[in-house]
Design brief:
cytoplasm; single chain
Length: 90
Amino acid sequence: SASAALGELDLSGNMTRQVEQDLPVDTDESHIANVGKLVEDMELKMRNLLQEVYFGKAKDVVGDLRSAGSLSDGARDRETQREIIGSMRR
Protein backbone atom coordinates (compact mmCIF):
# COMPACT_ATOMS: atom_id res chain seq x y z
CA SER A 1 0.00 0.00 0.00
CA ALA A 2 1.15 3.51 -0.70
CA SER A 3 0.27 6.29 1.69
CA ALA A 4 2.07 9.30 3.10
CA ALA A 5 2.45 7.55 6.45
CA LEU A 6 3.76 4.27 5.08
CA GLY A 7 5.70 5.34 2.00
CA GLU A 8 6.28 3.16 -1.02
CA LEU A 9 8.38 0.11 -1.83
CA ASP A 10 9.29 -0.86 -5.37
CA LEU A 11 11.00 -4.19 -5.94
CA SER A 12 12.20 -5.08 -9.40
CA GLY A 13 14.74 -7.23 -11.14
CA ASN A 14 15.23 -9.64 -13.97
CA MET A 15 16.02 -13.30 -14.23
CA THR A 16 17.10 -15.42 -17.18
CA ARG A 17 17.26 -19.18 -17.10
CA GLN A 18 17.75 -21.83 -19.72
CA VAL A 19 17.92 -25.58 -19.70
CA GLU A 20 18.91 -28.20 -22.24
CA GLN A 21 17.94 -31.87 -22.15
CA ASP A 22 18.03 -34.79 -24.54
CA LEU A 23 14.67 -36.53 -24.47
CA PRO A 24 13.25 -39.28 -26.70
CA VAL A 25 10.86 -38.14 -29.43
CA ASP A 26 8.74 -40.81 -31.08
CA THR A 27 5.75 -38.76 -32.18
CA ASP A 28 4.58 -35.16 -32.26
CA GLU A 29 2.63 -35.80 -29.06
CA SER A 30 5.73 -36.97 -27.18
CA HIS A 31 7.60 -33.87 -28.35
CA ILE A 32 4.80 -31.63 -27.03
CA ALA A 33 4.79 -33.56 -23.74
CA ASN A 34 8.56 -33.14 -23.43
CA VAL A 35 8.35 -29.38 -24.04
CA GLY A 36 5.52 -29.12 -21.51
CA LYS A 37 7.58 -30.98 -18.91
CA LEU A 38 10.57 -28.69 -19.51
CA VAL A 39 8.39 -25.59 -19.15
CA GLU A 40 6.78 -26.85 -15.93
CA ASP A 41 10.13 -27.83 -14.41
CA MET A 42 11.62 -24.44 -15.23
CA GLU A 43 8.57 -22.62 -13.87
CA LEU A 44 8.89 -24.47 -10.56
CA LYS A 45 12.60 -23.69 -10.32
CA MET A 46 12.00 -20.00 -11.07
CA ARG A 47 9.17 -19.73 -8.54
CA ASN A 48 11.35 -21.27 -5.84
CA LEU A 49 14.22 -18.96 -6.73
CA LEU A 50 11.96 -15.91 -6.56
CA GLN A 51 10.61 -17.03 -3.22
CA GLU A 52 14.05 -17.62 -1.73
CA VAL A 53 16.05 -14.76 -3.18
CA TYR A 54 13.84 -11.81 -4.03
CA PHE A 55 11.11 -12.10 -1.42
CA GLY A 56 13.53 -13.31 1.23
CA LYS A 57 15.83 -10.37 0.55
CA ALA A 58 12.93 -7.90 0.60
CA LYS A 59 11.88 -9.36 3.96
CA ASP A 60 15.43 -8.89 5.29
CA VAL A 61 15.57 -5.28 4.10
CA VAL A 62 12.18 -4.41 5.59
CA GLY A 63 13.17 -6.13 8.83
CA ASP A 64 16.39 -4.13 8.97
CA LEU A 65 14.48 -0.90 8.39
CA ARG A 66 12.02 -1.73 11.14
CA SER A 67 14.79 -2.62 13.58
CA ALA A 68 16.52 0.74 13.03
CA GLY A 69 13.81 2.47 15.04
CA SER A 70 13.90 -0.11 17.79
CA LEU A 71 17.70 0.18 17.98
CA SER A 72 17.46 3.90 18.71
CA ASP A 73 14.76 3.16 21.29
CA GLY A 74 17.07 0.63 22.92
CA ALA A 75 19.92 3.15 23.06
CA ARG A 76 17.61 5.71 24.64
CA ASP A 77 16.45 3.15 27.21
CA ARG A 78 20.04 2.25 28.10
CA GLU A 79 20.91 5.94 28.54
CA THR A 80 17.90 6.43 30.83
CA GLN A 81 18.97 3.39 32.82
CA ARG A 82 22.50 4.82 33.20
CA GLU A 83 21.07 8.14 34.42
CA ILE A 84 18.90 6.41 37.01
CA ILE A 85 21.80 4.29 38.27
CA GLY A 86 24.03 7.38 38.35
CA SER A 87 21.49 9.33 40.42
CA MET A 88 21.15 6.41 42.85
CA ARG A 89 24.91 6.40 43.47
CA ARG A 90 24.92 10.06 44.54
